[in-house]
Amino acid sequence: MDQELVQYLDSRFQSVNRQFQELRGEMTAGLQGLRGETTAGLQGLRGEMTAGLEGLRGEMTEGLEGLRHEVHLVAEGFAMHVQVQHVQEREYHDRQHQETRALIRSVHDELRQQHDHLRQRVENLEQKRQN
Prior knowledge:
This protein is mainly alpha-helical.
C-alpha cells in the first residue's frame, strides 16, 4: 500500500479517535454537571424543607392547635410542589438525554460514512495498484 495513503489514513483515523474522545469528554462533563446541579438543587430543597418543618414543629409544640390544619395544607402544597418540580426536572433530564443520544447517533453515522468512504478509497487504490 502507498506509504502516503497509509499515513493519510492513519491521520484520519487518529482524528476520528480524537473526535470520539472529545465527544466522550464533553458528554461526561455535561452529565457530571447535570448530576451536580441536581444534587445541589435537591440538597437545597432538603435544607429548606428541614428548616420549614423545624419551624412548624416548634409552633405546634407551643400548643397552637389551629396551626395543625394549616401545617397540613402547607405540607400537602409543598409535597405537590416537590412532585411537580421532580416531574419537570425528570422531563428536562430526559430531553437532555434524548438530545445527547441524537447527537451521538449523528456523529456515529457521520463517522461511519467517513470510514466506509475511506475503506472504499483504499479498496479502489489497491485495485488500481494491482492492475
